[in-house]
Amino acid sequence: MEPTVQQDIKDVLAQVLKSLRSDDPTAMLELSNHTIHDASIFQDEDSISFAVLVYALSKTIQRCKEAVCSYGQFLAPLQRAYDAIIAQDIEQYRKCITQLLREIHKSDQKTSIYIQEVLDKARIKKGSKLHEHGISIARTAELLGISQWELASYVGKTTMQETMGKTVAERVAFARSLFT
C-alpha cells in the first residue's frame, strides 16, 4: 500500500471512529468523499474500497438510526482495522475491511438485497467522483468492478442535474466562455 494512501486511510479511519462514538454518522459521507482524492491519484483498490466502505457504512447507520437499531457492532471491527493500519499490518487491515462489509451485510434485518444495492450505488457514486477527477470511465469501472454502462448512465444523470435551474442564456454564456 502506498504510504500516502496508508496515512490518509489511518487519519480518516480515526475520524470515522470518532464520528461513530459521538453519534455523528453524517460526517462519514464527507469522509468518504475525502478518500476519493487518493483513489483518483493512485488508482489503488485499498483507497477505493475504503471510500466505498465508509459510504456504505454511513448509509447503513443512517437507516439504522431511522429504524432505531444499534450500530455498535461496527466499532470493534473498525478499531481492529485502525490498529492494523497503525501497526502497518496491511493483510490484517484488509481482513478487517472484509469483516466490516460482512457486518454491514448482517446488520440489515429485512433483506441482504438492500446492502448489495447500497454497495452497488456506493461504487457507482464513488466512480462518478473518480471520473470527475479525470479518470476515464473505462478505468474507473475496471477499478470498481462495475459496468461502464452503469457508470456512464449515472455520470450522465449527474451532469444533467448540474445544469438544472440555470437558464438557457446562462448555459450559453458558460459554453461561450469556454472558447474565449
Our count of domains comes out at: 1
Question: Strand tally, please?
Answer: 0
Low-confidence stretches: none
Mean pLDDT: 76
Count helical runs. Answer: 9
Features:
globular; 81% helix; mainly alpha; single chain; 180 residues
Write the layout of secondary structure elements.
Blueprint: H1 3-21, H2 26-42, H3 45-67, H4 75-86, H5 90-107, H6 112-132, H7 137-144, H8 148-163, H9 168-178
Helix pairs in contact: 1-2, 1-3, 1-4, 2-3, 2-6, 3-5, 3-6, 4-5, 6-7, 6-8
Task: Walk me through this protein's architecture.
This protein has 180 residues and is mostly helical. It has one domain. 81% of the residues lie in helices and 0% in strands. The chain contains nine helices and no strands. Helix 1 packs parallel to helix 3 and helix 4 packs antiparallel against helix 5. The mean pLDDT is 76.
Question: What's a concise summary of this model?
Answer:
By secondary structure, the protein is mainly α. Helix content is 81%, strand content 0%.
